[in-house]
Design a protein that fits this description.
Strand content: under 5%
CATH architecture: Orthogonal Bundle
Structural class: mainly alpha
Bound molecules: protoporphyrin IX containing FE
Helix content: 55-70%
Largest sheet: none
CATH topology: Globin-like
Radius of gyration: 22 Å
Number of helices: 8
CATH superfamily: Globins
Shape: globular
Order of helices and strands: HHHHHHHH
Number of domains: 1
CATH class: Mainly Alpha
Length: about 160
């Protein structure tokens, strides 16, 4: 009897775990929750418009091929939000390292993306998730000599 009960318990636990794994696999990605490829391409196009009209960063993109950059940004955005899309552009860190990007510029770019999400009526939860992704890329983009922390550091404290 004891053995039967323990077998039933083991089998139910197994079914429960498999069920949870299946549910997790079915959960729609951030990419899908934002509306899939069409919405993502529109968000990227709106972000590009915002960058190229934003006085803080527009000069950075003055000589860029907009169609090329939009395609690469679409790929990285799609991949980072869970779509089955491969990023074929340059690696983030070496690409941005030579640009000496400061915090204000990084914040301006993030603002541009967030404004594009709002324009495309993306939900608050999805906005938060995109913001967290953008923040995670910050160390690869901002020159660490140009952060508030390093610029305001007390030289006397460096001993
Ligand atoms: C989360 C932040 C960022 C992400 C995910 C990102 C992503 C990208 C991607 C995917 C590309 C195209 C890569 C390629 O050429 O193969 C690119 C290019 C570029 N990014 Fe960023 N970027 C970010 C922040 C910034 C910031 C803050 C600036 C400066 C204001 C900036 C300036 C540029 C410039 C000037 C290019 C080159 C465009 C060209 O090739 O003409 N990026 N970025």
């Amino acid at each position: 009897m004891k053995k039967l009960l323990s077998t039933i318990l083991t089998v139910s636990l197994l079914c429960f775990s498999l069920g949870s794994i299946a549910d997790e696999a079915k959960a729609p990605s951030l990419f899908d929750r934002m509306g899939g490829e069409k919405a993502a391409r529109q968000i990227v196009a709106d972000t590009w418009y915002n960058h190229t009209t934003n006085p803080i960063v527009r000069n950075r993109f003055a000589n860029s091929d907009g169609e090329y950059v939009k395609q690469k940004v679409y790929e990285i955005f799609a991949m980072a939000t869970g779509a089955d899309v491969k990023y074929t552009g340059k690696p983030m860190k070496p690409l941005h390292a030579t640009m000496n990007i400061n915090e204000a510029e990084f914040n301006a770019v993030v603002d541009d993306v967030m404004a594009a999400l709002v324009k495309n009526k993306i939900g608050q939860q999805e906005q938060n998730e995109v913001l967290a992704i953008l923040w995670s890329v910050r160390p690869d983009v901002v020159n660490s000599n140009l952060t508030t922390k390093t610029l305001t550091a007390d030289p006397a404290a460096k001993k």
